[in-house]
From TrEMBL:
Organism encoding this protein: Nothoprocta perdicaria (Chilean tinamou)
CUE domain boundaries: 301-343
Keywords: Endoplasmic reticulum, Lipid droplet, Membrane, Transmembrane, Transmembrane helix
Gene: AUP1
Transmembrane segments annotated in the record for this chain: 32-60
Family under the similarity heading: Belongs to the AUP1 family.
UniProt-listed InterPro entries: AUP1_CUE (IPR048056), CUE (IPR003892)
Chief location category: endoplasmic reticulum
UniProt keyword Nucleus present: no
Signal peptide start and end residues: none
GO cellular component: endoplasmic reticulum membrane; lipid droplet
Pfam families: CUE
GO MF annotation: an example: ubiquitin binding
Protein name, as recorded: Lipid droplet-regulating VLDL assembly factor AUP1
Compartments where found: Endoplasmic reticulum membrane; Lipid droplet
Length: 408
C-alpha cells in the first residue's frame, strides 16, 4: 500500500509519516557523500557569506522594479549567482485565461521561483501580515478568518482581471516531491472552475532538499551554502471542473494528474498526518510534575479535552485528537472535524467502532456504488449527519451525567 512505501516503520495505527516523502534528516547517511560534504564545507561557508550580500541586492532590485517580464529576467539572472537555477518546459503551455495555478509543495520558496517565470501571487495563510510576509513575496489578506471567508476573499480577488493569477499549494505542507503527494485540500478548488496544474521538482547535491519542521530562514541559509539548487517547472494543460463535480472530487482528479506527471503515488495522507508523525519523531523530554510552567498546564488541559473526545469517538487515535485540539481548542469543533473527514486517521481497532450507529436508518442499505457523483455526495452527507448526531447526543449525555454526579 502507499502508506507502507511512504511511511517506513508504520504501525497498525498508520501514524507514521514518510521519511522518503518529507525527510527529518538533512545530511546524507552515505559515508562517501558525508565525507564530500565535510570537504566542501569551507567552500560552502565562503559562498554563504558572499551570497548573503548578493541576496540583499537581489531583494532591493526586485522591490525597485515594477512587475514585468524585464524584472523577472533580471532577477532570474541574479538568482543564478545565488545558486538558484529555474528551468521550465514549453512556456506556451501556460494558459493565459487561467486564474488559479495548482502546484505541489517542495520548499519554502516555491512561490518565489514560479513568480520568476510568470506573474502570480500566493496568499499568506500562516502568520500575521507585515514586513516579513511582504518581503517573502506573499499576498497579504489581512487577519486570517475562517476557511469560507478566505475562499470568498480569493474569489473577489480573482474576479478582477487586473490582478495576477493565484498560485496555491493544496498539500498545505512541503514534501520532497519524490515519493508521493499529500492529500489535496478542497478549498483551492472552490475558487474557480478552471485551474492549471504545475509540476515542480527540486534537486540539489550533498544535502536533502526538504527537511520537515525547518524554518524558512534555515532553508535560505542552506540554499546559499550548497553549490546550486535546480527547480524544474513543468506546465500541464488546464483542467476544467466537470458538470456537477464537487470540489473534493475536483481536487482528487487534479492530484492524480499531478502524481502521474511527477511519477509518484497519490496518497490520502494529510498535512495533519505529517505533523503528527514529526511530533512523534521529536525526542520526548520528561516534564516536572511539580513547579511545571504554563506549557505543562496547557498540556494537561489539552489531554483532558482529548479524553472527552475519545469517550465520544473511541475509534480515533488519541494522538490525532490531541493534534487537532491544539489547533481548534474546542471539543465540539474537533468532533466535527473528525466526523466530517477534515482530519484523516486510521481507526485503532475494529472493536472500537462496534458501538457506532449504522450510517442511515431511514433508507435500506445500498448494495452498489452510486454512479452519480451527486448521489454519492448525498449518501456521504447522510452518513456524516447520522454519525455527527450520534456523537453529539452521546457527548451531551456524558456531560449531563457528569453534572448530575457532581450535584449534591
Amino acid at each position: 500500500s502507499p502508506s507502507q512505501h511512504l511511511f517506513p516503520g508504520a504501525g497498525t495505527h498508520g501514524s507514521s509519516i514518510p521519511a522518503r516523502c518529507s525527510s527529518a534528516r538533512r545530511f546524507p547517511s552515505d559515508g562517501f557523500l558525508l565525507l564530500a560534504l565535510l570537504l566542501y564545507a569551507p567552500v560552502g561557508l565562503c559562498l554563504l557569506v558572499l551570497r548573503l550580500f548578493i541576496g540583499v541586492h537581489v531583494f532591493l532590485v526586485s522591490c525597485a522594479l515594477p512587475d514585468s517580464q524585464l524584472r523577472r529576467f533580471i532577477v532570474r539572472v541574479m538568482c543564478s549567482v545565488l545558486g538558484l537555477f529555474v528551468r521550465q518546459n514549453d512556456p506556451r503551455l501556460r494558459d493565459g485565461s487561467v486564474r488559479v495555478y495548482i502546484a505541489n509543495h517542495v520548499t519554502h520558496f516555491d512561490h518565489n521561483v514560479i513568480s520568476l517565470l510568470t506573474s502570480c501571487n500566493t496568499p499568506a495563510l500562516n502568520g500575521a501580515p507585515g514586513f516579513i510576509c511582504w518581503s517573502r513575496g506573499f499576498l497579504e489578506l489581512g487577519a486570517a478568518g475562517s476557511r469560507a471567508e478566505l475562499v470568498d476573499s480569493l474569489r473577489v480577488y480573482s474576479s478582477h482581471e487586473g490582478n495576477a493569477p493565484l498560485l496555491l499549494f493544496p498539500e498545505e505542507a512541503a514534501t520532497n516531491g519524490r515519493a508521493g503527494l499529500l492529500r489535496f485540500s478542497s478549498w483551492p478548488f472552490s475558487i474557480m472552475d478552471l485551474v492549471q496544474p504545475v509540476a515542480l521538482q527540486v534537486q540539489r547535491p550533498l544535502i536533502t532538499v526538504s527537511v520537515a519542521d525547518s524554518s524558512w530562514i534555515a532553508e535560505l541559509l542552506w540554499t546559499f551554502f550548497v553549490p546550486f539548487t535546480v527547480y524544474q517547472v513543468r506546465w500541464m494543460p488546464s483542467v476544467p471542473r466537470r458538470a456537477e463535480e464537487q470540489s473534493e472530487d475536483f481536487a482528487l482528479r487534479v492530484q492524480e494528474l499531478l502524481a502521474v506527471e511527477l511519477g509518484v503515488v497519490s496518497t490520502r495522507l494529510t498535512a495533519a498526518d505529517r505533523a503528527e508523525h514529526m511530533k512523534r519523531l521529536r525526542p520526548r523530554v520528561p516534564s516536572r510534575v511539580a513547579g511545571a510552567g504554563p506549557s505543562a498546564a496547557e498540556d494537561v488541559r489539552v489531554t483532558a479535552m482529548a479524553q472527552r473526545v475519545k469517550e465520544v469517538l473511541p475509534h480515533v487515535p488519541l494522538e490525532v485528537i490531541s493534534t487537532d485540539l491544539a489547533q481548534t481548542n474546542c471539543v465540539d469543533t474537533t468532533i466535527a472535524n473528525l466526523l466530517e473527514g477534515r482530519v484523516s486517521f486510521f481507526p485503532e481497532s475494529k472493536e472500537a467502532t462496534t458501538d457506532l450507529p449504522a450510517p442511515s436508518t431511514s433508507q435500506p442499505a445500498t448494495k452498489h456504488f452510486a454512479k452519480s457523483s451527486v448521489e454519492r455526495h448525498l449518501s456521504l452527507q447522510e452518513r456524516k449527519r447520522a454519525l455527527y448526531d450520534y456523537a453529539r447526543r452521546r457527548f451531551a449525555e456524558k456531560q449531563a451525567a457528569a453534572r448530575a454526579g457532581g450535584s449534591p
